[in-house]
Fold each of these.
Amino acid sequence: MKTSNLIIIALFTATQLGLVSCSDNNPINPDNPDDDNQKNELYTTVLTNDANIITQTYVQLNDEASNLTVKAQNLSVGDEVALEAAKEAWKNARAPWEKSEGFIFGPVENLGIDPAVDSWPVDINAINNILNSGDTINSSVLETNNEARGFHTLEYFLWGINGDKTASELTNREIEYIVAAAKNLENKSQQLANAWLPSGGNFANVLVETGPSNPANYTSQKVALKELVEGMQGIANEVAVIKIENPLNGNGGNPKPNAEESRFSHNSKLDFANNIRSIQNIYLGQFNGVDSKGMSAVIAEQDASLDAEITAAISDAISAIEAIPGTFTDAIQNNREAVENAQGKVLELSNMLQDQALPVISNL
């Protein structure tokens, strides 16, 4: 599947770029500039490139989730090497997921995949009920409770509630649960990748081929471009006012450590930085070292100064998050100024996207 998916993505890109090359046959009509159903060559290029980035991100997620299943199946009580390998595989799968949160729309929302893989906090009572049930634990058993599956349930088992779990503390029953949860995550990620791939639901083409009959109601290129900007703004806002704010000030202006997402693994800072990288990838049209035209090209055509400001704001937000000393758990107590600075930079980016970028797109 991994090899064939990448081939399909390459074919998809070539096909869509073929659409771009033909767009001169259907340019914006200067005699009717308000006709939103006409196709603009630059917008087609940007939508094609960003749809490809989204698809590749989900394929990478599925590949890493598949590897996590393998590492989970290798676990045994007392095997520290296997436990460390499973932890590393969790982190490797977590990264593309967090880099996808700038585009939580389409299948990831419509198919209920976001809550199925990333609900927080975990429901420890539900987890214990499953553990103590005596029933076989498999992927299908976990379908009924989002808070008892997904990334954070796996994180809870692999690291423990205090982040210091050892392989000798694992039980065979817990390993059974870990394998089931990993497989469930793999299944959801495969469902998501397939929904975007040309060989599956081909939602990438839905994002690109806008028009009155579009099945996702992307009735014009403007509507599709606006979806991308709203996705970027949404995750910037979430990082600033929920993911950072709740653990930083959730206890009446004081720290609330148990509100911190990914606190078992101390992966929170990387999660937040990768959330902003999801914005960076779509905005700049970048993925795995390959540059293409992203939303930046659309903004720059209308307002070059604003484009430069947004590009800098993205970089500043990532740098500020990474500059928080130590773990986020410790920083909300002992380096609050650094956390507040990062929060401020992310909020600046969110406001810039909301108050400046979105109006530019709305006025195209």
Amino acid sequence: MDDQSPDLSAKQSLDLIASMIMEAKGNVQRNNFYFLLWGWVVVSANLGMYALWMIDYKHPYVVWTITIPAWIYTIYRSFRDSRTKYITTHFDHISGWLWVTYGVTILILVAFGYKVNFQLNPLILAVTAVPTLVSGVILKFRPLIWGGIAFWVGAIVCFLVTMKVQPLVGAVTIIFGYLIPGYRLRRMNVE
């Protein structure tokens, strides 16, 4: 071992971890935009799909094309934001890769949705619980933890209702899973 690199005391180690968590929380607070963007896009798509089903539109899923510009803007903005001078912590890297793997998983589910008769709402809600809850745990931010739990509850409810009611369940779940935590993060960022 190098004599010039002193070992950290237990208190110093805990202080370092706490400061990393606070820095990561600050970075996530700056990114509350993504929770709000995706919250409103997905709520709108769910409600739009429900409305199109109610008027017997032949292809109600077409409303989900509103996610394409949201994906493009998300990729653009995350690339742009990655070039800013914010301190990036280990927690930021973990969180970033958690959300990237989530996005890939969603794309796989959508691409092969025909294999499950496009019964995607409960699957997507169940999968969305993981990065939401884990982000809440990493940041010690209870609204995201509760948001992750809300996604699991919403997934269970979706499995129990008809396909035509699932978009309503999805919309309500997104409100509790993304929008409420997103606005709480935004409020913390302003204060």
Amino acid sequence: MAKVAGFVAVVYALGTVAMVWTAATRDEVGERPAEAIIVLGAAQYNGRPSPVLQARLEHTLSLYREGVAPLIVVTGGRQEGDRTTEASVSADFFLKNKVPDSRIAREVQGRDTYESLAATARFLRRRDVSDVVLVTDGYHARRVKAIAGEVGLHARLSPVPGTTGSIRRLLKESAAVSIGAIVSHRRLSAWLH
């Protein structure tokens, strides 16, 4: 019995790694427009996007200009020591690139991916919006899509090209996806805070 359980655990782990890798390398935008593009926040330094956030913003701007969706949602709160939020820095980027303020929605409270997507889903529901495209790094994409489903968003992925991450990152994300699938991403987020 222990051998069977061990075999099942190995198959499950390998399957999860394969799902994370596939999500990291596949863009799901397709032909059908979405209602919003959600760009996940990342570090910012005194109002300047980190290289990770900059790449996400540039990818989102390209999608917006291609007509993927009429609304951009920027996410991310203020981390300890920050003078501004990740979402505010992201919104400033889009404003500087001539995206009208009326086409930018801000989620400024989230401390992590789950909190940001849950808050985003709540205010998008009030706008009757649920069909979204998610922009994040490739290695992060599968977990982000799982969280989006958990909070009631119908999501497609558009990972930033070239961000599949290292083996270590893929394995860490695979563990988070596995644990989140078992206990829920909401509980996992709460445990990590």
